[in-house]
Amino acid sequence: MHIREPRNRSLLRAAWAGCMALFMLLALAGPAASSPTQRARYIFLFIGDGMGMNLRRTAEIYQAALHPAWQPALWMNALPAQGLTTTQDASSSTTDSAAAATAIASGQKTRSGVIGMDSQAAAPLTSLAEIAHARGMRVGIITNVPINHATPAAFYAHVPSRTQYDDIGQSLARSGFEYFAGGAFLQSAGPSGNETGLTALAQAAGYTIVEDRAALLALQPGSGKVLALAAAVQDGGALTYAIDRAPGGLSLLDYTRKGIELLDNPDGFLLVAEGGKIDWAAHANDAATALREVLDLDSAVREAVAFYYRHPEETLIVVTSDHDTGGLGLFLEGGAFQPYITRLAAQSVSLYAFGQRMDGFRETYPGASFSDAQGLIEASFGPSMVNSRNQAVLENAFALSMQREGLHADEETGASDPLGVELSTRLAYKAGILWNTGSHTSLPVQTSALGAGSVLFNGFYDNTEIFSKIVLAAGF
Fold first, then answer.
1. Average pLDDT for residues 350-373, to the nearest whole number?
2. Whose CA, among 32, 265, 386, 403, lies 20 to 30 Å from 212?
3. What are phi and psi of 449, to 5 degrees?
């Protein structure tokens, strides 16, 4: 027989549940989260390059599966305002980082490849960072890829082509922004390319140059304008992938934490932070590495949330992406998804780093057999990758690697070793992950926000509106 619960007790339970839900919301959102009228004095804009919605969600599942006792949600996914953002550029439904970052930075569409200029590459567009700086706010631009790469450049440069690295580097020195941090300068093709010259130009413009973590951490408020570059870089002038980073290695979190310390002042600041290597790993379809990069960006978001708690009525945090890369998809393999994704933890290095390991192996053991490489395979991708079902395929990929066939290198993904690609693809499949492409897609991305004016970021809107919403929240 079913016994009905007393009415007053059921109401009490419902009220208690409602209060707890409200408490959890307010604990995260704070008093400014739902007010569009509060002026945002301290603004954080995080851009996960190539970070599609599925990649964000999969990183969350991965973290929860590996660390059930931790906060189950990513910090960026727990922000109270959530929206969907379209990313097409002025000429195509699928954008590149230059056009997408220009749309976010300036509120106007342009063509792929164009930085901070209109769709005809004829007139410069004023960026959010330039507006903030003109209003007396300090400005910081940070990334874990080269500092004159497309996404950070859209906030301080105006050039017809994203490959004009020298011109972009010169724009950095002229900007007067208080804090830059990223990988090494990229150099333009041809005899004019001069990385040392760009560093010297910034120094002549009054920037203090630091090139390692110890020098960065030693900086104190009042240090003046700072340009932090990574002297020890991995691929294409970028910081090391999180999965490859040695303890104490320079990270986006370090850049974010120091940026807050250096930029904090009563007139406010704008800090733009790019997680650029999410895109690079996604181009390579390197699932384990891409997920770690999302988690690495999320640790920087966590630092901004900690700052928000100190200034809840004046801080705005926005997390978005310029576009989706890879079209990652999830599927079930015989049951619940969660237990399978933990298999990715067996991969201990990025595809790029594995390619470097294979380079060394090939040079040291030019006549080696597949069995000679099994120790390297197990150390990099786990002991279960070589079995009777896939050994023949892996042996063929190994042969190509040893012959240096099928190897290629590019700015974003580095060298792709055939054996590494085969191992990474098979491991991802075992974990329930498939990639649809090695390129960008036209899928919408997720935008999240917390703090003053964050309510503006709910809904479905174009990436150009991120600019206008921040301008409105800041009261410019």
1. 94
2. 265
3. -155, 155
**Model confidence, pTM:** 0.90
Q: What is the Cα–Cα distance from 447 to 81, expressed in whole angstroms?
A: 8
CA 455 – CA 189 distance, rounded (Å):
45
Within the chain, how many helices (H) and strands (E) appear?
A: 18, 14
Q: Which domain holds residue 463?
A: 31-328+439-474
Same domain, 103 and 221: yes
For residue 435, CA distances in Å to 55, 87, 349, 361 come to 11, 20, 19, 29
Examine the pLDDT at 329 and tell me if it is beyond 70.
yes
Given a cut of 60, whether residue 445 has pLDDT beyond it is yes
First to last CA, the chain: 65
Where residue 439 falls among pLDDT bands split at 50, 70, 90? very high
Q: Which of 307-321, 322-336, 350-364 has the lowest mean pLDDT?
A: 322-336
Judge if 358 and 324 occupy the same domain.
no
- In the predicted model, is pLDDT for residue 9 greater than 50? no
- Per residue in 245-267, pLDDT (tens digit) is 999 899 999 999 999 999 999 99
Pull the structure tokens for residue 362.
């090939």
Neighbours of 289 (CB within 10 A): 27
Same domain, 207 and 108: yes
**Residue 146 forms beta bridges with which residues?**
183
Let me know if residue 13 belongs to a domain.
no
Strands 440-441 and 324-325: antiparallel
Q: Is 91 exposed, middle or buried (0-12, 13-18, 19+ CB in 10 A)?
A: middle
Coil, strand or helix: which one is 71? coil
Amino acid symbol at 222 = G
Distance CA 183, CA 344 (A): 27
Q: Report DSSP state, residue 408.
A: B
Pairing outcome for strands 138-146 and 208-210: unpaired
